[in-house]
Amino acid sequence: MTTAPGTGELPSDQSNNNKLNKLRAAVLGANDGIVSVASVVMGVLGATSDHAAIAMAGLAALAAGALSMAVGEYVSVSSQSDAEKADINRQRHLLSADPSGQRDELAREYMKQGVSEATARQVATELSRKDPLRAHLRVHFNPDPNDINNAIHAATASFVAFTVGGLIPFLAMVLSPGSARIPATLIAVGIALFTTGYLSSAVGKTSRPRAILRVMMGGAGAMAITYVIGLLFGTTLH
């Protein structure tokens, strides 16, 4: 098994990193949905006890947030993919116009990393025989021409993650009787935030107590602030 040139990572490591990044993005998207929708419904609940108003505000927050996440992710990934494709096409043109010059350049890049000239030229020659485009891309840009992110897939994943997260406080709020709305929402959100904090720490291999506390404190703070704003706003209206 060989190391990906210029990265110090094995190809399988890069694939695993991509999967972990996608999982991390899904967890964060769900967390955004939980906090955003919970904050909105808590803010509206602070202003009014009208069940229809709370439900409509929660639904609007859920739909707007999920669509915003999807559009933002689509634009971001599309821009990144366009840039990566441009790099690939540019490097493909250079290889077609001057293959020997590009092979020498590849050798020089390895020499900059401390590889002897003889070894660098041997590596550059062997890699150029097998897949010169991939060899140059890994040294200069590190995109994989066979693993360009799909903007539609990324947008869909963000939409689904946010929606799944946002449904938790929304359903807890609208399905609970009046006196139980706040405690039911707080319990549901607390469990959901604990889960996302745990998953994010597991994916990132970081301290679980710290990650869980950070996520739960952030969510609790957001809900408390919007609830107080709702109370103040509701008092002003009345």
TrEMBL record:
<protein>
    <recommendedName>
        <fullName>VIT family protein</fullName>
    </recommendedName>
</protein>
<dbReference type="GO" id="GO:0012505">
    <property type="term" value="C:endomembrane system"/>
</dbReference>
<feature type="transmembrane region" description="Helical">
    <location>
        <begin position="151"/>
        <end position="174"/>
    </location>
</feature>
<dbReference type="GO" id="GO:0005384">
    <property type="term" value="F:manganese ion transmembrane transporter activity"/>
</dbReference>
<dbReference type="GO" id="GO:0030026">
    <property type="term" value="P:intracellular manganese ion homeostasis"/>
</dbReference>
<dbReference type="Pfam" id="PF01988">
    <property type="entry name" value="VIT1"/>
</dbReference>
<keyword id="KW-0472">Membrane</keyword>
<dbReference type="InterPro" id="IPR008217">
    <property type="entry name" value="Ccc1_fam"/>
</dbReference>
<feature type="transmembrane region" description="Helical">
    <location>
        <begin position="25"/>
        <end position="47"/>
    </location>
</feature>
<feature type="transmembrane region" description="Helical">
    <location>
        <begin position="53"/>
        <end position="75"/>
    </location>
</feature>
<feature type="transmembrane region" description="Helical">
    <location>
        <begin position="211"/>
        <end position="233"/>
    </location>
</feature>
<keyword id="KW-1133">Transmembrane helix</keyword>
<feature type="transmembrane region" description="Helical">
    <location>
        <begin position="180"/>
        <end position="199"/>
    </location>
</feature>
<keyword id="KW-0812">Transmembrane</keyword>
